Amino acid sequence: MTFSSRGDRMTVGFIGGSYMFDLGDAASMDRLSVVVKGIAAGNMRGQFLHDQIFRTYVKLDDVEDAVSLMRYVRNELRQRTAGAAGAHAGGAGEKDGFEAYFNAFEECATSCRDFHGNWGILKPVRVARVDMPAYLQDMARSLDLVSSLAAADEPFWKSFSG
Fold first, then answer.
1. Interval 79-101: pLDDT, tens
2. Residue 80: left (phi > 0), alpha (psi -120 to 50), or beta?
3. Shortest CA distance to 29 belongs to which of 130, 152, 112?
């Protein structure tokens, strides 16, 4: 677990199974969300998975498809020129085309599946605040509440008031 923050900015990352990755500030995660949404545009399944990854949580039955989407986006970013990929860069994790984010997502997806397979407990892949005590607040929030977000609602990881 992490107890650090970057100045007065809350840090966020991917969590899933028994893993938690501190990836940076919410603005960087939001930029990745925009990139994924743009690349998945025009594909209803891709838009649905984007919503699960960045707004609510990835359902167990959708983990494989979500991993496939993130791999597709990673490969698309790799194929773009360094200048075009750099256009999205703003934070340390973005300068390499969000590689740390993609790696963390895959690790969390694997841990989510393994945790469920070994213990029968769902600890889904999702974006969460990773600073204490915000992390504990996010973990205490029921998955039913998280999945009940309306389309106009901000994801909980963006609302730092708790």
1. 874 555 445 445 545 567 799 99
2. beta
3. 130
CB count in 10 Å sphere of residue 65? 16
User: pLDDT tens digit string along 17-65?
Assistant: 999 999 999 999 999 999 999 999 878 899 999 999 999 999 999 999 9
Q: Are 44 and 51 in contact (CB under 8 A)?
A: no
pTM of the entire predicted model: 0.84
Paired residues of 19 in beta bridges: 16
Q: How far apart are CA 127 and CA 55, in angstroms?
A: 8
Which whole-number Å values give the CA distances from 2 to 5, 45, 119, 153, in the listed order? 8, 33, 24, 27
d(CA 2, CA 11) in angstroms, rounded, equals: 10
| Alpha-carbon gap, residue 126 to 20, rounded angstroms | 10
Please list the alpha-helical segments (H only) found in 55-97: 63-79, 82-86
